[in-house]
Structures are given as structure tokens and as C-alpha cells.
């Protein structure tokens, strides 16, 4: 049975509050996620003073602050991440954080992570891609806002700098918060598979849990989904995030789908084998039949149960002679 890696994306939904970030670790663990993921940045190294907010950020946080001012308010200092990593180790959930600048990469490299998560916005950031690729770790690369050739170009940079495609998982993603259903395009996962990486997954920004479940049914190896402790909290990402009970429901549904996918082999399952006798049919006497009488379309028929001669042998039975007397509905036997 496959095991989908489920990343509970805390992101910046802690609003720059360390205690809230710690609570999110416990919530992600309780929901059954494999990893809880934050976002690490030195805002001044990521955003210029002239950078505008995205429209969804204006809608969720207003227009009074600049994008830089907003991010200063909701990011944790780099010194907090070692404690969050230690808490994840203690609780028993994987720690991840997405770096948004080169200094943040150094900070996280010192902590050690199973995967480097490259966000969609950095897929055209050559110095950034080089630096992560040279660290030699496994990479999860989101591909929102990208054409297929841009993903291929990023992969070539990663390969040239020491990390093979076999060490990269690609996530299909639509970078809009929330993403309309008409813009999801899960079939784009098939295009990403053509690039020959280790696996393909899905980073979800839709409302609800139906799309990530569908992505698992289409073969997603990784699911990333934003969550929050309270969707009414201020901040840019809360409204497009799951609350803890919804996150737990998504995890349960994905684990159910993993079992339901099974194998590609079509066979009789052990749980249905007893029902073959109940649901299938056999050749039986349609009326009283005397010994020596020839079986015809008039004196035999097909009825349940299925523990006698299969109706697939109907033509072989016709014309044979009854070896004994048969009562109506009695299973036909040939000896």
C-alpha cells in the first residue's frame, strides 16, 4: 500500500507568534500529518520596499501596509526555528520549512531536514536554485505559475549543481488563494510526470478537502495543504486554510483512498469470495425431470445459488441425459 506524504502547511499562519507556531505543531501531529511546514525568511532580503501586495493579500489584510511591512509582522526571527525543529522531534512529526532567501537556506541547513521545499515563486531564482541543489538533499519543488519548459529549466539547474532528478519531487500547484475549481487542472500532474523526476504530487490552495483526495487517486505522492488554528485570524493565508478538524478529515480520507487504490491486478478479493456462491447462479431443474430424460431449454433454467454447474456450460449440458430424477430448483448434476 502506498503512503502519501502529507505536509500540513503552517506557513505564516502563526502570525509571527512563536507560541501559536508551537500549538500548530501539536495540531498537525494530532491530525495525522507526516510533516508540519513553516516559511522562513528575512523579509528585507525577499521583498523590496516597492513590491505590491497580491490581490488576495489586499483582500485579507487591507492596503494600508506594504507587502514588506506585512511580512515583517508575520514572520518569525531565524533564531526561533531551532526550537520549532526540536519540538517536532519531541512530538514525533517531521519538520520542514521553506526558505525564501539565501540566509534562510543557511539557517535551515544547520537544522537538518528530510526535504528542501522550493516554493513556486523561486522556480526562476537561479542563485537560490543553485544553492539548494549544491546541498545534495532531496527536493520538493512546487510549480505554480510555471510553464512546463520553466520547470524543465529549473530541473536542469538543479541537476547541473549536484542533485539528480531522482532526488526531486514535483508538485503541481495553482498559485491563487483560494484556487477556483475551474483552475485546478489536476491533469497537469501527467505533464509533470513526463519530466522524469522521482514522483509527482500536489500543493492545494482550494477550499475544502475534495481536490487533494482526488489528487491522491490520480497518483499524487505528496499532498501539501495550508492549515490554521482559526480561519478568522488576521493574516493573508488563513481564509484559504483548513482548520484542525478539517485537516484531520483530509488525512483520514487520504489514508482510506490509499487502501482503496489497491493494485492493478483484477482478481477475486478474499472478502468477496464467500459471496460468489450467494450472488452467482447454477443450472437447475425448471420442472420435475425423470432419469433418462434429455436436458432441453424447457426443462432446465438458471437460478441462485452458484455452487452447481455454471450457466457458462449451458450449451454443454443441453442434449445430455439426466442421470437421475430431479425436483424443481434442484441443482443439475451430471453423475
Q: Helix and strand layout, with pairings?
A:
Blueprint (H helix, E strand, L loop, with lengths): L4 E7 L6 H14 L3 E6 L2 H4 L8 H7 L5 H8 L6 H11 L2 E6 L2 H10 L3 E4 L7 H9 L3 E5 L5 H13 L7 E6 L14 H6 L5 E6 L5 H8 L4 E5 L17 H18 L11 H7 L2 E4 L14 E4 L10 H4 L18
Overview of this structure, please?
- The protein has 335 residues and is of the alpha/beta class.
- It folds into two domains: 5-261, Alpha-Beta Barrel (TIM Barrel); 268-335, Antifreeze-like/N-acetylneuraminic acid synthase C-terminal domain (Type Iii Antifreeze Protein Isoform Hplc 12, Alpha-Beta Complex), CATH 3.90.1210.
- The protein has 13 helices and ten strands.
- The chain has helices at residues 18-31, 43-46, 55-61, 67-74, 81-91, 102-111, 126-134, 148-160, 188-193, 210-217, 244-261, 273-279, 314-317, and strands at residues 5-11, 35-40, 94-99, 115-118, 138-142, 168-173, 199-204, 222-226, 282-285, 300-303.
- The strands form two sheets. An eight-stranded parallel sheet has the order 3-2-1-8-7-6-5-4. Strands 9-10 form a two-stranded antiparallel ribbon.
- Strand 5 (138-142), helix 8 and strand 6 (168-173) form a beta-alpha-beta unit.
- The longest helix has 18 residues, at 244-261.
- The chain is elongated and about 100 Å long.
> CATH homologous superfamily name of the largest domain?
Aldolase class I
- Please, how many domains? 2
What is the N-to-C order of secondary-structure elements (H for helix, E for strand)? Answer: EHEHHHHEHEHEHEHEHEHHEEH
> What's the story with the biggest beta sheet?
8 strands, parallel
CATH class of the largest domain: Alpha Beta
Supply Rg.
30 Å
Amino acid at each position: 500500500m502506498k503512503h502519501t506524504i502529507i505536509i500540513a502547511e503552517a506557513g505564516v499562519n502563526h502570525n509571527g507568534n512563536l507560541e501559536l507556531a508551537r500549538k500548530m505543531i501539536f495540531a498537525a501531529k494530532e491530525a495525522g500529518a507526516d510533516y508540519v511546514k513553516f516559511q522562513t525568511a528575512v523579509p528585507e532580503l525577499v521583498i523590496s520596499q516597492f513590491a505590491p501586495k497580491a490581490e488576495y493579500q489586499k483582500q485579507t489584510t487591507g492596503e494600508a501596509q506594504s507587502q514588506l511591512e506585512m511580512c515583517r509582522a508575520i514572520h518569525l526571527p531565524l533564531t526561533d526555528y531551532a526550537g520549532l525543529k526540536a519540538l517536532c522531534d519531541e512530538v514525533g512529526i517531521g519538520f520542514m520549512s521553506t526558505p525564501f532567501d539565501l540566509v534562510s537556506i543557511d539557517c535551515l541547513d544547520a537544522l537538518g531536514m528530510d526535504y528542501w521545499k522550493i516554493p513556486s515563486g523561486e522556480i526562476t531564482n537561479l542563485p537560490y536554485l543553485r544553492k539548494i541543489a549544491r546541498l545534495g538533499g532531496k527536493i520538493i519543488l512546487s510549480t505554480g505559475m510555471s510553464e512546463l519548459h520553466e520547470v524543465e529549466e529549473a530541473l536542469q539547474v538543479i541537476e547541473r549543481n549536484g542533485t539528480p532528478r531522482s532526488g526531486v519531487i514535483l508538485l503541481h500547484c495553482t498559485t491563487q488563494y483560494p484556487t477556483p475549481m475551474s483552475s485546478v487542472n489536476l491533469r497537469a500532474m501527467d505533464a509533470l510526470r513526463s519530466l522524469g523526476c522521482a514522483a509527482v504530487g500536489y500543493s492545494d490552495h482550494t477550499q475544502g478537502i475534495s481536490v487533494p483526495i482526488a489528487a491522491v487517486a490520480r497518483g499524487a505522492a505528496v499532498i501539501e495543504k495550508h492549515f490554521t488554528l482559526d480561519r478568522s485570524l488576521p493574516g493573508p493565508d488563513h481564509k484559504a486554510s483548513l482548520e484542525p478538524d478539517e485537516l484531520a478529515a483530509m488525512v483520514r480520507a487520504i489514508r482510506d483512498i490509499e487502501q482503496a487504490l489497491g493494485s492493478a491486478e483484477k482478481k477475486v478479493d478474499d472478502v468477496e469470495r464467500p459471496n460468489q456462491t450467494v450472488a452467482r447462479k447454477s443450472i437447475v431443474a425448471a420442472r420435475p425431470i425423470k432419469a433418462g430424460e434429455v436436458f432441453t431449454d424447457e426443462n432446465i433454467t438458471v437460478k441462485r445459488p452458484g455452487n452447481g454447474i455454471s450457466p457458462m456450460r449451458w450449451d454443454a449440458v443441453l442434449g445430455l441425459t439426466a442421470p437421475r430424477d430431479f425436483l424443481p430448483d434442484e441443482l443439475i448434476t451430471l453423475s
